[in-house]
Structure formats: C-alpha cells, structure tokens
Fold each of these.
Amino acid sequence: MIRKTTSNSSHIPKMTEITAIKKTKRGLSGVFLDDRFWRSFPPEFAAENNLVVGRKLVPDEITAFERAGDCREASDRALVFLDYRARSVMEVRRRLAKVGFSREILDEVVDRLHETGYLDDRMFAREWIDSRSRSKGYGRNRLKSELKGRGVTNEIIEEELAAACNSDAEEARALFVGQARLVKIQGLGTNVARRKLADYLIRKGYDRAIASRTAKGLVNGLFDLQINERVSLKSAGAVRTNSLTALASKLRLIMTKRH
C-alpha cells in the first residue's frame, strides 16, 4: 500500500509583496504591502535597504525592518532633542518613551548615542553646573537637586560639583547674587532684610550658613560698594573658579574692614 504524502505548507514563510511606495506629507516613503499600508521610512533608509516595488518579504524580514526603522526614527528624534542643548541619559529615555518606543529600542539607541559621544552624563553635569551657576546664580544645593532630577548619579554630581564649586567660589557667587537682590529689599528693616535675603539665597541653592553670613554682611555693611567693586561682583557670574577664589578673599576683606 502506497501512503499518500502531503506537503506541510504551514512551515513555508508567507511571502508579502511591496506593491506601492508613496511619499507622505512629512516627506517619508510610505510602503504598502499587498496593497495595504505598512509603515513609513526615511527615503534614504528605503533606498539603502532596497525597499522597492515588487520586492517580496518574508515575516522575519518584515520584523527586522520594523525594528531597524524604529531605531532609525528614535535616533533621529534623539538627535533633534540633543541639538537644542546637552541632555542626560534619563532625559533622552523619557522623551523617547513618551513617543512610544519600546524599552528594547531605547536601550539600543541610548547605547549607540553613548558610544558615539552624543550622550555622556558626566559632560552633561559639567555643562549644566557651568551654565546654571552663571546664568541663574544657583548654588550647590540647587544644582545637585536639578541634576538628581535628571537621573545623574550621586558620584558624578559630587565629583563635578567639587571641581566647579569650591567654598570660595560658592561664597563669591552668593555675594554676587545677594548684592543683585538688594535693590528689591531696600527700605525694609535690617532684620527683615537679612531674613528675606538669606531665604532668597537658600532658595537659590546656597548653604544656610553661607546664606546667613552673606545676608548679614551685605545688609549691614556693603550697600555702599564702590563702582569697581560692583563690577567685580557682577563678574562673579561669568569667571572661572580661580578668579572667583580671589574675589571671595577680597570681599571677605572688605566685609572685615566694614565691621
């Protein structure tokens, strides 16, 4: 007796054909499989991967192209996000996750950006400290809080703050920030002015002891700084740590002479 055999067609991958490619409003290449819209790719991606009308794809190829397309789109979005300013790893991950990319895609894209130098939490922390201390006059505590909120590790934060914000630089910047604030509290009683100025400096991120000492010195004796001294104070927001160190010493000497 001859046994009848049948082919097991379920193990043969189903072929799907690219039947059309249409330009979308965003300038992408919209690919259609078997006359049904599949997804859009950047034109250069479609060209590089030979996605042309008439090509037949098996399911594994479709899955691979979908993953590659997601990685490409996520990378492009991340680079646009990074173009405005430096970002932490956590900021980029959050941004891409909000769009809807999977954790797997996020891991791959973030690793690639780190390898190519686009993402570096240490460099980000360094730039953040420099920028925010100059433009906003923030102290160590405020800077530390902001960096922690952006996912930077404590180790990196402490090392970069130690390099950029030694005690003299911190005190000099507090004096600059406090002196600029005096105009808004002039006319108040001495005790009230001290308290308001100290609270303001604490909100700016300065240690309570520095804030209290700075407020007391400014309110009690430094209202009448000479013009050249005011210029030096103003420069505290834009000079390097070594200059700030000299400035802090000078200002402490001024405060000592006034008392």
Note: The longest strand covers residues 16-23.
Amino acid sequence: MASNQSNRRAFNRAVLFFAGFLFIHLAGVSISIAQDSMADLATGRTQMIGQPAPEWKLKEWVNSPGLEIDQLSGKVILLRFFSDQPAGAASIVDLDREFRSQGLVTVGVYVPSPMPTQVPASQVKRLATAMGFNFPVGIDSSWATVNRYWLDRADADMTAVTFLIDRKGVIRYIQPDGGYDRDSNRKGRREFESLKRQLQTLIKEEAEENEAEAVKTGSFSGQEQK
C-alpha cells in the first residue's frame, strides 16, 4: 500500500515536471515568435509607401522658381535629399538625363548637415553645379521638409534618401541611403538597377494612363460629334 502511494507520488511529480517543462518551452516559443513579429513590423521598410507625398516647405530654390508638389501633378517625380557630400550623385544625373524626355521630373532638396542652419543660395548653387544637378533644387535650411519625410528605419540616411512619386502624388518606392551607383560595387549596382526598374515601371504606367485617357477623350468626342 505504502509502495503504491509512493509510486503515485513519483508519477505525479514526473507529470508536474513534464507539464512545467512543456509550459516553459511553449511560452519561450511564443515569446520568440512575438519578438520576431514585432521586429518585422519595426523595420519600417514599408513606411510611407502607398501614402500621398507630403507638401514641401521650401522657401528658397536654385535652378528654378519656387515649386510646390501639387504643380507636378501628372508627372513622375524623383525626389532626392542630399547634403554636402551626396552619395550616388552621378547616378541621379544619369537617371535624370535618361528619363527627363519621357516625363520624369527630378527634384533635389538640400539638407544642411549635421543640423538645421541657414545656408546661402549661392553656396547651394555652386554645389549643385559641381555635381551636375541642373534640375530644380530646394533649400531645406530649417529641415521643415525633411522632417515631413522622416523615416523611422535603421538603414535610412535622411540626407541621402530618394523617393519615387507617381503621377497621382503617391510615394511608390524609397531608396534609403543613396548607396546606388552603376559603376560601384555589387550592392551599389544592385541598388541602382532596382531604382531604375522602379522608375521605368512608373514611367510606363504614366504613358499607359495618358494613352488610355486620350482614347477615352477621343471616344467621347466622337460620340458627341455623332
């Protein structure tokens, strides 16, 4: 009898031990899964994608009169933030040269680094000329515009980030650090080709939508004439 009770107690302890071990194991798995999920969400890689591009708060411009993003409605925009030593500057010039005739509007925004400070337009003009930037360049001395586009992601350099904005004013692609160059290392070339492919897609979309609108307008005109 005593032996049976002893055996039952041993059995119960074993069951409790196993149950405790299983609970701790499963809880650990659950916590790990939750952490991984939160980490995925926290990368910020899709932040602002699919959202309307914020307005620009730029009081001074070089190479152009003042611009508002609404003025460029119907155009594909390559928006590039840059500072005194911009990475990928030559590639921006190449893309602007290749796609400008197809409807691309390239816009630069100069962001003083490492902190907001008033910068003379003449200084930005010299820098833009030295880099071959003959497209519109706004001066964001107070960081009012870059703060509107700020990205909460570890790989973002807000003095080098590039945004592609479609003809409806929606952000469609973000290259976070200016690390693209067709004549650079493998990563730089890969980033450049990715940016270029996205740009080609948006240009193609614009052409197809313009053609569809032209056909639609033409069909309506034909119906009215009848």
Note: Residues 1-42 form one domain.
Amino acid sequence: MNDMTSILSQPVARLGATTITLGGVLTFGAVLLLALFLALVIALWRAGKARAVAATEAADHARDTEARMADILQAQAEMQGRMGAIAEVFGARQAELTQSLGQRLDAMTGRLGQTMAEQTKSTHESLAKLQERLAVIDTAQGNIQSLAGQVVQLQAILSNKQTRGAFGQSRMEAIIADGLPHGAYEFQAGLSNGSRPDCLVRMPNGAPMLAIDAKFPLEAWNAIRAAEGADLQKAAAQASGAISRCISAISPKNT
C-alpha cells in the first residue's frame, strides 16, 4: 500500500510552482473519460428520441393522408349518386313537360273559341314550369362543377409519388381483402430471400405463392396519353422501359 502511494505521489511534470504527480494525471484522465462517456450517452439518447418523434410524425401524416383520401372518395361517390338522381328527376320532369305541352296544344286546337285570357294563363303556367326545369338544370351544372373541382384535387394529391404509393397500396389491400377469403393472403410478409412484397397470395393445390407489389409508372403512362405524332413512339419506348424496370424490381420477390 505504501509502495502504491509512493508511486502515485511521484512527480511526472512541473508547471511553475505546481508539481504534477502520477496520481493527479490518472485522476484527471479518469474524470475526462467519465465526462466523454456521459456526453456519448446523452447524444445517443437524444438521437433515439428524435428518431422516435420523426417516426410518430410520419405515421400521423400517413393516417391523415389516408383519411383525407377516404373522405374525397366518399364525397365523389355521393356526388355521383346525386348526379344520377338529378338526371333521373330531370328526365321524368322533361317527359311530364312534353306530355303537358302536348295536352295543352291538343286542348287549344279543340277550343279555338276560348278567350285570349285563358290562352295567356295557360302560356304563363307552361313558362313557369319550364323555368323550374331550367333551375334544376342550373343546380345540376353547379354539382358537376363541384365534382370537377374534387377530381382536380384528387389529381393534385396523386401527383405526389409518396402519397400516390400509400393510396395505391391501401386500395390494393382493400380489393384483395374484399375478393379473397381471410387466410388466403398476407400483407408485408417476409420471404426467405429477405424481400418483403406488399401482398403474398397463397395459391391452391400446392402452387407457388404469388407476390404482388402496388407499383405502376404513372408518369410514363401520362406521357403516352399526352404525346402526339412522332413523340408518341418515344413516349411508348420510355413507358416500356419504366414497366420493365418495375418488373425487374418485383420479380425477385416471386423467387
């Protein structure tokens, strides 16, 4: 013990009137290492907390986007139903108007001796009914314009690749869940080769399972639709390359 104390008290350097011993150097080194360790622990804790917050925000954003898309689709379906009802009402009222006008013309032909006042009254009634029909048409036109605005909004949302991918995957899952029995498919299933397709369908009679990915080169398809003349062939070639790349990216998940 005395030997250890003697070793630690031996001077190793001198700064002016201050003597630095071996024990002091070791103590300073231990304190410095402890401070560095604490700083590393705090940095790792903050980084983990930041990643958790970012993941939570991303999940909330995805849920909000899916909810907005569901609301837009529901509104579109309701608008289509209303448009169908309006068209049916308009057709029925138009037939009633035609029948009414025909009856009035027949009555006017058979009553040539009636007074001009009765003819004027009948004309005013017909015009009032016609005005009601025109009001129905104006209402239908306003509904069509509103539906067009919602379609534009849907196109704006689908122009974002990330949002379009989430929407396409959710629609794919809904279609498969509606069309296949429970247990015949699995979403985001892991395969033995390490890949993870969007959906894995279990085929009957021991056939190999079918892997499905919700991918489609929308930009290339829109380019074909917009191309004309000589640009159409170029757009078709680019679309073919985009589809081939999608197939190449998906094909390993079927092995």
Note: The longest strand covers residues 11-15.
Amino acid sequence: MRRSLLVVAAVLVLGTAVAAQVTWTVTPSPVPTEQVIRMTLTNRSGSSITLPSTAPWSIRDLLGGLVYGPIGLTVLVPLPDQQAITYTWNQKDRTSAFLAPGAYEVWIGYFDAKFQNQTLKAPLQIDPDRITVSGQPAPGVTVKLLVSSPRAPQLPYVAGLALAIRPELPIGGNRFLALAPDALLVLSLTAGPPIFRDFQGSLDASGAATAALGIPSHAALKGITVHAAHVTLHASAPNGILSYSAPQAIQIQ
C-alpha cells in the first residue's frame, strides 16, 4: 500500500489527440476536481499553423454541446513548426462555479498550412475525489481530514502530507499526485499516531473516511503550510492506485 505512493513513472502522455503530427494534449486526465488542467497544442507538421484567437479551445460534453468557452481576442496567432502553446484552466465556468465531475472533451480549432479549418478533440475525465480540513489548524490542535472518493466505496485509501505540491509524485498510469516526495510525505506514510491518525484505512459505503492530524505544540509551526492529498487503491488499477485527490493546503495559524 505504501509502496504504491512512491512508485516512479517515466512518461507523461495523457489524453492526446493527433492530426497530421499536430497534437492536442490534456493533462492530467483523469483529473481531480478543482485542480488546474494544462492543455498543450504542439505543431510538428512541417509547416506553420494558425490559431483563430488567443483562446481557441472549449470544453464540450460527449455529444459536442458547449459546456465552457473562454473569452479571447479574435486575432490570428501563428504557431510555427516545432513549437507548442499551452493553456491552463482552473475548472471554473463563467459564474466561477467548478465544473461537475464527469466525462468531457476538450476541443481546439486551428488553420493548417493550406488555411483549412481543423479541429482536434482530447478526452477529459473530472473525478470527484477530494480531501478537506475540518477544524482550525494550530499548534496543539487536532484537525480532521475528511477523505471523499464517491466512486471508490469500501476500498482502501492512503492519505499523505507534504511541504509542497511540486515536483508532483508519479503514481503510475501516466498520473501525478500533487505532493512533493519530501521527508514529510515519507513521515506521514510511516509514522502513524498520535500525529498521523487513520492516514490509511478503508472508505465506508459512501466512499468517505476521516483521518486526523495532531499538530505538535510548537509555536515555531505557526505560519507553516502543508498539503494533504489521498489515493484509493484497487489491485486492477495502474500500480494499484485507482483514483487520487487534488491537494488541500493546511496553514497552521
């Protein structure tokens, strides 16, 4: 179980659409809710291509219906051969609400070397896994960490803490957990109570569990921010890890 969190994957190639050596890649996918998504258009076609605006991408449902489209300037943007352009999205729509978990596609349009309109599509899966904090983090206080993975009821889970979210931790299947592989992560996976309570266990029938972080009574901890995340485990999943959450920042007051 612990070894699954520390496995090293070699290549990140997720959700890629290809058309004549122009690639449209969405990472990560699947992605936890509320985590930033990176979308990269790479041109290796041998010729320059042209984007119709500064934001030529959109989020669509599986029937092609528009779910979200960013606002951009309607100006032609050249993308030379052997160049790439990356966009990011925080999963929020124009009302600042997070998109509901589920299966989507990310579309992008461009003009090829003959100025013919082309569209690439890449899959996007948003999963509802999350970990949240209940209580006021402070020295000498124990706060609850509410683990939620609705699609993994009664499966094992492992939670961890790290001092940073970069570099991300490879967890297999071309997926990355946004916890740095630092000393705190190793400690949170191995030390157990009284500081790290129920950081490993099984989810209930609704896919929920409660862990606890007992913050030591040291004033020097005030102002420090740590980050929590969790994974769920299943033997048939890549490296035994079925799903994972976005990181939750915990600032000690």
Note: Confidence is low (pLDDT under 50) at residues 1-16.
